[in-house]
Amino acid sequence: MKPLNSKVKSWHNKSVWLIGASSGIGMALALELSQLGARVAVSARSQSALDQLVLEHPSLYACTMDVQSGESVARASEAVKAHQGLDWVIYLAGHYLAQDAKAFTYAEMFKHQDINYMGVCRVLDCVLPTLVSQGSGHVSLVSSVAGFVGLPKSLAYGPTKAAMINLVECLYLDLSPCGVGVSVVNPGFVKTPLTAQNTFEMPYLLMPKEAAQYMIEGWERGEFEIHFPKAFTRVLKLLRILPYSWYFAIIKKWVVR
Asked: SS3 of 227, please?
């Protein structure tokens, strides 16, 4: 089957902007891509975390940014473009707090929406004109398998990831004719500061470096959707197409304990 995006034959000298790169998958990805020869710019809200990252890895270019502020995103975008140009934009910033409808809070729902979805929109507002104008580049959004189906404790998080998946599908239809690649990454459980709060057993738990390697391999193959580990993600994909009576019964038996 023909890949939906151009294959990446070499990362050498490609300008990559990683948003949400001060820890977890973002940090691991920054180091892997840098080792492959990419010029990597890293952004996150924590100045101290970025300073420490660049101190340990001087080849990285750091630019502090708060995805909840349009002004901050605009400043960082201009700084990155002026420093190294723009080939790849990868959005990894995210917020997660387990929430149940019996303890519903609007503030937490809004915070998830503002970081996980509107943060993406603020970034796109700054980078899409450049990518479309140059007729090249790639946008990749890191979503989650939590966007596939409704899951317990995912009341605030899951809907934002479902919105990201839908957004990426629309972006691909609009941008692929312009020469701009688009992809979505849907990881399973990865050991990060976000998942550290989970009190339940996380099946097929991966380390950040493993996740980064899956992502790079998927981009190199030109994949539109990169999901992993397959043994877990394929089960959740199957749940999407089952009748709701089956789906809810399976979730209650498998997940709700």
From this structure: strand
